[in-house]
Specification:
The complex is a heterodimer of chains A (449) and B (194). Chain A is mainly alpha-helical and 449 residues long. Helix content of chain A is 77%, strand content 0%. Chain A starts with 8 loop residues before the first helix and ends in an 11-residue tail after the last helix. By secondary structure, chain B is mainly α. Chain B has a single domain, classed as Four Helix Bundle (Hemerythrin (Met), subunit A), CATH 1.20.120. Classes of the chains: A mainly alpha (449), B mainly alpha (194). The interface between A and B is medium-sized, with 30 and 29 residues.
Chain lengths: 449, 194
């Protein structure tokens, strides 16, 4: 850590990790409901659990992005954060909003629109939080060195805030409602979040492999170009069956097929940087998370996305467990692993410790990632069976669900593995290892470029 | 950073791999390759529709005017020649002739759009729209997407004529040739092959 104001990232990382645990814990509860349908039904019904599971995920990921940005910006711009005080106020307001939403959900207070269930006042609070960040981040960027990485990161965060505004657009026409809804949901995860992902990865690659900035920047341009070229019109793959005109089936099928390209480029990028620069960086766990992030994102977002993105296929698979399989591995690979990579890299510097608990962190990686991959396979098989029985043979929904029981047990088991893996990761990040406790602290040098 | 890493990567600082040898900005070639994929997929869509529903394809195709399409092919290919001449002039250091050739290419780009507009108006007069049939959904998507690129290409040519360095002009010309080439592929697949 070179700049004092980077320390503010620690708040965001801690908040994100806490919500991460909540998210996965609730996920395991949901997995239990799938095999024991009346579990918790009278206390917290499934729809509420699902709101908490999905909302907590989004909030902790964004909290991680904010933290990552506050860590990255000073090093990239070579200047302190414009206002650390504002960054702290922003953090507490964000955390309060998130917790208020969760408590509200438990009492049945929500607006019902999937993923955007937050009551209006919380949406307003989120907007204020975003504005605080954009002001702080942009002012930092303006007074410092302007690198491609910092610019792309801020661009991604600006667009993220901009597209969130469509959460306020809720026409009574159900077609238009869904159309704008995807402008938040799709254009985030398959559009501007990829800018954030690529820039954070680029930062990690420069720091950990020592490869020249010029080389990394070229990759960044290519990845960002591909992400926007394919991702924006790729939104069409959500417009097949919502009441929009039929040409969306062509637009959506073609562009979203190519959405695999930026993810493939990120795999080639990360591995070639590590190959060029070597693996001498002491933080092997952060390197593992960075590489794992690109591979799992390519599989989850790229390959599993492509599996059911073509309109004639999606006609049968739409909204089955195949979607759930894709959603889980895509989010885990692209954004969960990315955030953990950033945390794993940055926290030793922030806490002024030697790189610690590497082995535990890496075991956490393999257990959580292995659990998630197993879950993806279980849900994919469940989805294929479901598609055949329900959509081809015409059996009724609940009858089919009954027959998927075995897969849902496998999903619960893998979910528990993910939970244990996550707890190991959080422990590894938060608690100094035995070696670190016995050796007097000699802070790691931040590598020059 | 250690020295071993430094020497290894310094050599590759200006290296864009396979794209290094191409004229203009390498990022333009990333875009061109992406465009080729998309137009390739659309044309493959035409081919697939032709196989699945030959009768529907024939009905749709009969409503098109191959003369107008042929005229536009001549217009755009000639425009491609003009932008190539612009690049040659610029490489020889003649900025004014380069700008004039580029302007001539742009004028033909506008002519292309005008012909396209006449074609669309004729279809509209016959009551043919994007939802008429699978053939016309694809027809409007492909030609409309292409026409949008002609408009974008005009903007690009305008920019590179203004900031008229060799690299800029080569970059713009590469984009314009891509639009040109795509039309040369669209014309036979959509208008001619029966």
């Amino acid at each position: 850590m070179k700049y004092e104001s980077q320390r503010v990232a620690l708040y965001y990382f801690a908040g994100a990790l806490a919500l991460f645990v909540v998210q996965v814990l609730v996920g395991v509860l949901m997995g239990t409901v799938y095999v024991m349908p009346n579990f918790l039904a009278d206390i917290v019904p499934f729809n509420i659990l699902r709101m908490i599971h999905t909302n907590a995920l989004i909030v902790w990921l964004i909290m991680g992005f904010f933290g990552g940005a506050y860590y990255l910006l000073p090093e990239e711009t070579e200047t302190e954060i414009y206002s650390t005080k504002l960054a702290l106020v922003q953090f507490w307001l964000f955390l309060f909003g998130a917790l208020a939403a969760v408590v509200g959900y438990l009492f049945g207070i929500h607006e019902g629109r999937e993923f955007l269930e937050q009551p209006l006042w919380i949406k307003v609070a989120i907007t204020i939080v975003a504005l605080m960040f954009l002001f702080n981040g942009t002012m930092t960027l303006l007074k410092g060195r302007k690198t491609v990485i910092a610019n792309v990161l801020m661009l991604g965060l600006w667009f993220m805030a901009l597209f969130f505004l469509f959460a306020f657009v809720n026409p009574t026409n159900l077609v238009l409602d869904k159309m704008y809804w995807w402008w938040v949901v799709h254009l985030w995860v398959e559009g501007v979040w990829e800018l954030i992902m690529a820039s954070l990865l680029a930062f990690l690659m420069i720091k950990m492999t020592g490869v020249d900035r010029e080389v990394v920047e070229k990759w960044l341009y290519v990845i960002v170009g591909l992400a926007l070229f394919t991702g924006i019109l790729g939104t069409g793959h959500h417009y097949y069956w919502i009441g929009t005109p039929g040409y969306w089936q062509w637009i959506g099928s073609i562009f979203s097929t190519f959405e695999i390209l930026p993810f493939f480029a990120m795999v080639v990028f990360a591995f070639s940087m590590v190959y060029k620069g070597g693996r001498k960086h002491p933080n092997q766990a952060a390197l593992l998370w960075s590489l794992g992030c690109t591979v799992l994102a390519f599989l989850g977002a790229g390959v599993w996305g492509f599996m059911h993105t073509l309109a004639p296929i999606n006609y049968y698979t739409h909204g089955t467990q195949i979607t759930a399989a894709h959603g889980h591995l895509a989010f885990y690979g692209a954004y969960v692993a990315l955030n953990i990579a950033v945390f794993t890299y940055a926290m030793p510097y922030l806490l002024k410790r030697e790189v610690y608990n590497q082995t535990l962190n890496m075991w956490g990686f393999w257990l959580a990632s292995g659990g998630m991959v197993f879950m993806t396979f279980a849900l994919t098989f469940a989805g294929v069976v479901q598609t055949h029985l329900q959509r081809v043979m015409g059996e009724d929904f609940m009858g089919v669900q009954e027959q998927l029981g075995m897969f849902f047990w496998m999903r619960l088991g893998s979910g528990v593995a993910v939970l244990i893996g996550v707890l190991m990761i959080v422990w590894a990040l938060a608690v100094p290892g035995r070696a670190a406790r016995s050796v007097p602290a000699t802070p790691l040098e931040v590598p020059a470029e | 950073m250690n020295t071993a890493v430094e020497t290894e990567t310094d050599a590759g600082t200006d290296d864009w791999g396979a794209l290094s040898a191409l004229p203009g900005n390498p990022l333009m070639w990333v875009l061109i390759l992406s465009e080729m994929l998309v137009f390739g997929a659309l044309l493959a869509g035409f081919a697939a529709m032709h196989l699945i529903d030959p009768a529907g394809h024939a009905v749709g195709q009969a409503a098109l005017d191959p003369i107008m399409g042929g005229l536009n092919t001549i217009v755009l290919v000639t425009s491609g020649l003009f932008i190539a001449l612009a690049v040659r002039a610029r490489v020889d250091g003649q900025i004014r002739p380069a700008r004039l050739w580029s302007a001539a290419a742009m004028v033909l780009g506008v002519v292309f759009l005008a012909v396209k507009a006449v074609e669309y108006a004729d279809k509209a007069a016959l009551g043919i729209g994007m939802e008429t049939s699978n053939f016309f959904t694809l027809y409007y998507l492909t030609t409309g997407f292409h026409a949008a690129h002609v408009i974008a290409g005009l903007v690009v040519l305008g920019l590179v004529s203004w900031k008229c360095t060799v690299e800029n002009l080569e970059t713009g010309a590469a984009f314009w040739h891509m639009i040109d080439l795509v039309w040369v592929l669209i014309y036979p697949v959509v208008y001619l092959i029966r």
